[in-house]
Write a structure and sequence with these properties.
Layout lengths: L1 H22 L5 H20 L13
Helix pairs in contact: 1-2
Length: about 60
């Protein structure tokens, strides 16, 4: 799971750099803004989800 977190952080940083290029009009903002939003959404979902206890299995006879 550590690898996914590092990958998501790298994706957010890459999307921020790509968005800066969009603000400089090198790339369309219509491409960069959804990419930044989706990368932030995925990172927030991954880092804030709760690891809940699902209960114990009943013993079988």
């Amino acid at each position: 799971m550590k690898g996914i977190g590092i990958l998501l952080i790298a994706l957010v940083i890459l999307a921020l750099c790509f968005n800066i290029l969009g603000m400089l009009h090198f790339v369309s903002l219509a491409i960069t803004l959804p990419l930044l939003f989706l990368s932030l959404l995925a990172a927030c979902f991954f880092f804030t989800r709760k690891r809940t206890f699902k209960g114990m299995k009943k013993p079988t006879r």
